[in-house]
Protein 1
Amino acid sequence: MDVRWEEAGWERLTGRAGRRRLPVWDCTVGLVVGDDAVLLVDPGSSVREGAELRAQAERLTGRRVTHIAFTHGHFDHVLGAAAFAGAEVFGAVGLDGLLGTAAGREELRGDAVRNGLPEEDAAGSAELLQAPRHLVSGEWTLELGGVQVLLANVGPGHSRHDLAVFVPGGGREVVFCGDLVEESGEPLAGPDAVPRQWPAALDRLLALGGEDALYVPGHGAVVDAAFVRAQRAALAERFGVSP
């Protein structure tokens, strides 16, 4: 156990990767530490929460967050991004069309307020949000120094812009799944979900991580490949998708 990480409320997954389950929506934030750079996976639900995460990440790693990856574009996973000035932001291709428009940001603000984020926090965070500069259409390798992280556009499924983050080595591979996988409740299929393609997205996750990887859901406890396969089967049955 790494006491510093545990005392700060983080779970150390490998020598390079950890995560934190945030309060209220139980949203997962990932942290990948390279020798030269630091990647944060999903920066929280507001600028206020993002600022707290930034301070924690800097204390844990001794340097600033240089890269951010959005697993998808829902408010609880993106609205903290403005707290990380200067970071290079990555997302699935097409996500810029959602986050980079006034209409898209207003939709995020409204969704955040409906789910309980205070109006002031939601409005300010949405107004400051910038679309990802780097758009992943297939796969993109980030060299962080001592570790190469793979960003993979595995969707659509839970949303139209699902991105997975694969961290090799460290004893076991780690796959940050976003809300393609949920452990703490049934996967949510909102208005932007593509249900009939969701099982195929999970097939791509399993091919990416393999049998022995740690799979980190967007919400809930870390799971294994067997859990992902079972959730894939349940989604296929729920949405009437042939095996």
Protein 2
Amino acid sequence: MPLIPEEPQIHESAQGPRATAAAGRPASTPRPVPGPRSAASPRPVRPVPGPAGPVAPAPRPGAGQSPAQRPENRSDQRSTPQLQLIPAPVDGALDAAEEALDLLLDSGRAPGEILVLTTGDPHPWAAHELSFGEAAYWAQQDTGDDVFFADASAAERAAARPVVIVAVNGGDEETAARTLPTAMARAGVLLVVCGDPQRVTALLGAGAGV
């Protein structure tokens, strides 16, 4: 699937689920595509002008067709999330992921809809919460009312969310290669990958074969 390159904005790492930009940093980061809106927050639909009288209902898709002629189920058509790549160096991937997180939250995404994965050093929030024990840490994921940060090694344990952000901020190639397909499977509508474009492309190819 096509990758959509974006320019990152690097700023200081946040110490909590909601990242905030550091003072003095340039604010020229391109906005990531927020992705399709969930059914819980549909966009209003404008009525189409037409006759005031009753209108005959349109035939259902697939009506009068054999099963072989009917289009595929819509859930199958939407099973692959949109993929967006934000170029960033290894030491700036986490900052780029936090900037993407801020922009998605500003666009209206609920914090509980977003999962952030790191392939290298864990996010400071995850490291802090794990210091209180794994049970308390994973309980916050189950609550589902805030952004959840997890290490790539725990990606398979992470619950699916509409949006997944991956910061390719280090780690060995095998772990990183396995993380991207797992992140794709966890993402409902949008997967944002922050990292070196050439490495990410290579990892996506390697992940398809592991």
Protein 3
Amino acid sequence: MARTGDGSARGSVWLEPRTPRGGRGGQPSGLDRERITAVSVRLLDAEGMARFSMRRLAAELNVTAMSLYWYVDTKDDLLELALDAAHGELRLPDPEDEGADWQDQLRALAGEYRALLVRHAWLSPLAGRHLNIGPNALEFSRVVQRVVRRAGLPAHGVTGAISAVLRFVYGYGTVEAHFLARAADTGLTADEYYRQTMSPVAEDPGTAEASRESREPMAARGGGAVDEMMDRDFGFALDLLIAGIEAMAARG
């Protein structure tokens, strides 16, 4: 969780009154939290978190920076709003659908979360800095919990199973997003960047042996485009986690 200037933990924008603040200049017309949040997400996608600021956002909205303080107290508030808005893009299965397989639903949730992390590369650094208790994030958590409960685990094992899956997806999606961003920065496709990166690794005396040792499992996995390799690894790792949940549930 982020800290305030005096070192104490900051709260959450979701625990504060949602009424506009007064006393900071004229309230701009045509502006509200929803519009401010939508533009914040668009800017974060286009320019990244390092360049995001109240001044930059105000310029995009064609208002003064001070006018934004009618709706939020700090930039952290805006980031928290953007974080939850992104979670609103997740397509969630119906956890009450008795005819649905919990494994299929968990795979769908994992895939949605991975795609979200890749689509919004700025999202993963924010996850540990905020309580993440907005309505969309809470609904995602609620659905994940209900789906995992249907696996038949003892009550004390449900949160551990959720952590295993979501933290795996978080790590995988974060690394994938960083890789794709780095490739884009070089002007290369993901496949071109992968080949350019791996060729020196295989030839350098200091890394060649490790590269040779990994050649067999890499070949067994199958070649193809980078996105295909990532999908195969992600799917197999997720299957391992689901098999582990099944095994633990069978132990009772």
